[in-house]
Amino acid sequence: MILSAVRLKPARLLGLCLLLAAPAQSQTLSAPMGRLSGFTMPLAGTPSLGSPAGPGASASLSLPSPSLSPLWVPVPAPEPKLWLPGEPLRDSAPLFDGSAARPPLTTVEAAPEVRRSLERTMADVRGLYARFFPGLDPGLPVSLRFEAHERTDANLVRDDGHGTIRLRGPVPPGGASDRALGGSPFKAGPVMSGRIMRLVTVFHEYGHVIFYHRTGARPDDTRGFTAFDAVNEGFAVTLELLMIDKAVAAREELGLSEREAAELREWKRERLAMLRGRNHYTEGTLRVWHKLYRSGGQAALQSAADSLAPERLQGVPLDHPVFVLAGGEPSLLEAFTHGDERLWEGLRDLSNHVAAGKPITAAGLPAVQAILAKVKTSALRRYLRGMLGKREPAALHGPLRLAFLEDRAARELSDLVFQELARPDPMEAVRGPVWKDALRSMLPLIPRRPSGAGLIILQPS
């Protein structure tokens, strides 16, 4: 490959040589084992330092190399997996297209009071959507079913070609059980009446029905939680929380008792407590839909759902830079919609370079620079913390590449590495000092340059 630097002093090439000595398609931080006095990297068409320039000159660069611990060097890096937009799932028909006749409510229980309770819940949910989110719900075909189970939970399943919201719990709905208090799906509570618990739960699950209908997507069959799962759950959670706020404010008009309003507020508190953790609910709710709602209200939510490009999210790990770096910035989240293709290409090129070392071409540099200017510092920190949190030397490649591209990232990475070195490694007694040694070896590679020193441009030879 050809390496060119914009206003980059020769001394700044030290870390870059160590980081990118391997071929462009390798994620390995290359350095020979042991202590070495020098490091040589051939650069096509670039004269070596101290050698005559011009045709026929030696094309190599020799620079001193920091001493590296043998524990750091032999850690193998996986084969790079460049993440590019995939094809839609083979079965591309939408899960809910609204064309089928609305099926009857179904339940495994034949008791009339169970059926009446489910019918009331579904009617209440549709009424809340019509009142608080007009135009969002086109009246989609969906069934509601109860199954006896020791656990209390709910999920959306595909049943005979249409969606079914399945409720599970130890006590069937209807009659006295609607007034009885029971635990919610949250681990810590709250305790609430059966009616309110079903109302919020079915409202949330019906949010998934609307999401699949408006996006035309199908469930992501990737093992583990993905960016698509985060956006899917975040959509439903955002609607759920907005509904609670609106319902409590309109308590008297809706005929809710003070106790029921208090239960709704308690549900919201528990949900927000859950969102304080780092999970796919958090990423989709706080980093995506909440930001979109604050930027443009319900219209922004509906527009984003209608124009979403699911294939750009399906199969993408939650910690992939294409998703993390865009988080919290509505102008970058547009990259996941069928909008400005250049925005998507810039975010994709940046992320593929950071995640897998794919070169950034000179032609693609302006788009990458525009993306980096929009990335929030909080998103940079989340990505860097996430990679350092893996406590695996191979996970340090992405942060280093990002540090070479962005001054803020270099500063944040330096701070985080020093913090990691200052705290004990809980696994050091088991695996030895390999993690701390990796971090110490990493410090000399983090670029130290004044603001505006320029970006590193990588392009194929």
Short description:
The protein has 461 residues and is mainly α. Helix content is 45%, strand content 10%. The protein has helices at residues 13-20, 112-132, 194-215, 227-249, 251-254, 258-275, 280-307, 321-324, 330-333, 341-356, 365-374, 377-389, 397-405, 407-422, 428-431, 434-442, and strands at 2-5, 39-42, 60-63, 142-148, 153-159, 162-169, 181-183, 191-193, 456-459.
Task: Please supply descriptive tags for the structure shown above.
disordered N terminus; 45% helix; mainly alpha; 461 residues; two-stranded antiparallel ribbon; 9 strands; 16 helices; single chain
Helix proportion of residues, in percent? 40-55%
Biggest beta-sheet profile = 3 strands, mixed
Question: What class do helices, strands and sheet pairing give?
Answer: mainly alpha
The radius of gyration computed from the alpha-carbon positions, rounded to a whole number of angstroms, is 27 Å
Strands of the widest sheet, in order across it, are: 4-6-5
Spans where pLDDT lies below 50 across 5 or more residues: 1-110, 450-461
**How many angstroms does the end-to-end distance come to?**
4 Å
Any overview of this molecule?
A three-stranded mixed sheet has the order 4-6-5. Helix 4 runs antiparallel to helix 6 and helix 13 runs antiparallel to helix 14. The chain has 461 residues and is mainly α. The protein is built from 16 helices and nine strands. It starts with a strand and ends with a strand. Helix content is 45%, strand content 10%.
